[in-house]
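Office hours follow-up: a student asked to see two folded examples consecutively, so here they are.
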Amino acid sequence: MRIAFYAPLKSPDHPVPSGDRLMARQLLRALEEGGNEVTLASQLRTFHATPETMIPGLENAAQEERERLSRLWEQNGPPDMWFCYHPYYKAPDLIGPDLCRRFGLPYATAEASYSHRRNLGCWARHQEMLREMVGLAGVNLCFTERDRVGLAEAVPDARLARIAPFIDPSPFIARPSIPRAGRLVTVAMMRPGDKMSSYTALAEAMSLVADRDWRLSIVGGGPERVSVEALFSRFAPGRIEWLGELSSAEVAEVLSAGSVFVWPGHGEAYGLAYLEAQAAGLPVVAEHVAGVPEVVEHGRTGLLVSPRDPRAFADAVASLLADESRRLLLSNAARRFVSEERSLPVMARRLSEVLVPALEYPL
């Protein structure tokens, strides 16, 4: 089918790397691999950081996009479906609903989320728009059980389907796993909020096993780089390797030489970095928090510990450093898990299964 793809939070072409941008790109590829003709409908970003924020000219920009696409579709024919990735209270879809009604198209969402606590200011209007479109959508794809439950409670009649978070594992699986003993790896941006909270928890946990033989490679950059470096200044020189922001190929190279991936995961929707690490053969140590259990299976591909418990986190890391046979068992299972259950080809087939029936529900 012909699919118009839109990501109001962050376009797949956005210059700043993030999990949202990566998943948008992965969805585009999965849809194309399923035999669909996919077009990036618009790059308009509708993100509102606060409920009081009024983005100058946003409504006019959205109207211009609707008119531009209307003219294009009248000339060349409309798509078969509008596919919106990650609409939520901070990033509403101000383009697709009107066009779907005008052209009689089915509407589909992926990773839409609803929170009763966010009915504030302009966010309240965005939430009402979201509830309406989730109810009318031919299908709403939920990456986590938390999102599925939230949508089901907000819109009981919504058509919901689960699809697991996924990646293209080929760049990571293609490299042989040649771990250096005691080499820990973290890949995460350095931003305020949950990322900084996770870095703080990681530094505290690692201080509890400072007497063990390990080195930590940290991949990532961002506005909190100085603060993150300060957190780890307690460790002896050479224990922390600061690699900065790297390309995907460079990240794959770093992971291939690692033995354990360590990242608490505070506030993670799910965390594609966990899947990349597992595809490279690294078992994960993380907290059993937010969406992390959606991508790491405790006891099978890694170890999940109680939230906000640095001692439990430290003990999990120490156990894998001390038991190479167990680490290797988790490593092999992690690679199989991503390759056989969370890979792009697997999810391309799953997308086809859930999107074709959605064509029966045009607006």
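And the second, which I mentioned at the end of office hours:
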Amino acid sequence: MRLFRKIRHKQILDNKKAQYLKYALGEIILVVIGILIALQINNWNQSIKDKNSLNEYLIKIKSHTSQDQEQLEELVKGRKQIADLCKKARNSILDKTENDNLFLFMMSGTAFADFYFKPNSGGYESLKRSEYYGKLNNTKIDSLLARYHGLVDVISENEKSYNQYTVHQENYLDTQFDRSLILASAFMSRDSLAIKATPQSDYDQAFIEYTAKPAYRNVISLAAWQFDTMISQYNQLIELGHQIIKEIDIITED
């Protein structure tokens, strides 16, 4: 009987140990599940914060791109008007009818104006410096932004080259010609000029001589064909801008 009691007591102890082990294992499993859930919630919250932060950058880029679009459309309009005038002036040169088109040549002088596209790249540069830029790798918006700002650089170089050339030609003309009569004719009204001692024929002759200079005609000829290239690039950038805005709308509305 004593032997049976020992065996029974041992079974009871073994059973308690087994129950304790099951309870302890259950607690461990619950703790692990709780940690995993907490990590998942934390990752989910962080993912939402990252998405919101990235969207803020993209919305800023969208706003800046919209501003660029307005500026580009004005540049297209202005460049086209000047290009059309310069093409007519170039044809007049070829037809040897310059003296009959003094007003046309006067207006073609706007080809000397140094227009520059000044993009607002603040949002894009801020995104590039942020920790969120890598999240756009190999995405459509990443490709569009790279193409957009690559074309911005090309446009900047073309504008710089053209404008530097016109400034050089204009500076040369200033050393070769007294522009006082031309400036007076360009900016003073006919009534004001009529009361001056200088007759209108002198103003017209001064302008004929000035516009006959190779430096003046070189700028007109350059604008007549190069502006078409610039306008084409502006339009390409406008189209890329529309695509960027559309893609940002898709991303930020998700």
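Two things to take away from it. Residues 50-177+213-253 form one domain. The first helix runs from residue 2 to 95.
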